[in-house]
Write a structure and sequence with these properties.
Length: 365
């Protein structure tokens, strides 16, 4: 069954590490964006009942409840099997939590990133561990028990001791799901640009080495497994039965429809992408143009290796795929980056740390 992704790119602040098409946008743009988003949802030819709904961004948790109701009301009716909203700590209130639950949301992803005040200050985040703990209590009191906490390995000033303290908070708060991302250094974030330029801003000189980041990630893998949160995807860990059903659609090449700026869709063997910025998305709506910027046929055989190998369960190539990718499979098995029982192919623990190199090889094969 298909999923629905909703893009809400508005934030109260732009975090230094963020490389998404979101940020502090003009407030007067928001009502125009919401009109365009609801129009796109309403015009979509709904011939199926969504199984999952995911509101990402941006910070969709800051949506006025009346606006959130408008958006969700344009999707075939709840109850959905899973409906997720991303939230920034510091903005979860009892009123919001109860309203979210009433509107069909049963899962919240909190962008915590760290529980260490010094690390948070460098990123531009303003919450404290105590705020996170209080808001998790609010969510549970409202009947939302599927809670994800995001962490980033590689923030400025991060050490093994501070990372262990963040993981201790995970043990204390007992979320059902944790996402652990290794810091991406690229030109799409302010921190990434500064690191690449050997600059001094945003704590760039204090970004841990690649070796330390890999060690922090492995420490998380071991500790989260001890907490009954085993890894099921490179960056995602969950109690059994609490995996993200929506995100699994991406990795298993199941269909989903995306709405809003920079949203992606995968349907009927085609990949579709909307225009990247909220401004262009609104301009297209107001001039009567479709929001899609590109539609391309999916390369399913390549993509299955690229996304499917992210899962701990791995993939089961068919005979044609075994034949086509025989050379890179054999090479990576010999290097200890892939393992196979003859039917299933999966990354080894070392292969997880070098996964981008493995994936690129299959895309080029």
């Amino acid at each position: 069954m298909s999923g629905v992704y909703i893009s809400y790119p508005f934030c109260a602040q732009k975090c230094t590490y963020c490389n998404f098409a979101s940020g502090v946008l003009p407030r007067e743009l928001e009502p125009h964006y919401l009109n365009a988003l609801v129009a796109e949802l309403t015009a979509y030819p709904w011939s199926w009942q969504p199984e999952t709904v995911y509101l990402g961004g941006g910070t969709p948790s800051q949506l006025a409840l009346t606006d959130l109701d408008r958006i969700l009301s344009a999707i075939p009716a709840a109850p959905w099997r899973e409906a997720t909203i991303e939230a920034a700590p510091g903005g979860v209130t009892p009123e919001r939590a109860h309203a979210w639950r009433r509107l069909g949301i049963n899962r919240v992803s909190l962008g915590v990133q760290s529980f260490i005040p010094r690390e948070l200050a460098r990123t531009g985040r303003k919450h404290t561990p105590e705020i996170v703990a209080a808001e998790i209590d609010i969510l549970r009191s409202a009947g939302i028990h599927e809670i994800n906490i995001d962490l980033i390995a590689g923030l400025p000033h991060q050490t093994e001791a501070s990372w262990s303290e963040s993981l201790a908070w995970i043990a204390r708060l007992a979320p059902t799901h944790v996402s652990v991302y290794m810091l991406e250094v690229d030109e799409d974030s302010r921190l990434g640009q500064e690191v690449l330029l050997n600059g001094k801003r945003y704590g760039a000189p204090e970004v841990p080495s690649d070796e330390l980041i890999a060690a922090l990630y492995q420490l998380a893998v071991d500790e989260l497994a001890r907490l009954n949160l085993p890894r099921y995807e490179i960056s995602n860990f969950a109690r059994p039965g609490s995996q993200s059903l929506h995100n699994l659609k991406y990795w298993r090449l199941e269909p989903y429809a995306g709405f809003g700026a920079d949203a992606h869709s995968f349907e009927h063997g085609l990949r579709r992408q909307n225009v990247e910025t909220a401004q262009e998305y609104v301009a297209r709506y107001e001039s009567g143009q479709p929001p899609t910027s590109e539609t391309t046929p999916a390369q399913l055989d390549e993509e299955r290796f690229f996304v499917g190998l992210r899962l701990t369960e791995g993939i089961r190539p068919d005979p044609a795929e075994w034949s086509r990718f025989e050379a890179p499979i054999r090479r990576f098995v010999d290097l200890g980056l892939l393992e196979s029982d003859g039917r299933t192919l999966r990354l080894t623990p070392r292969g997880v740390l070098l996964s981008n190199e493995v994936f690129q090889e299959f895309l080029a094969a």
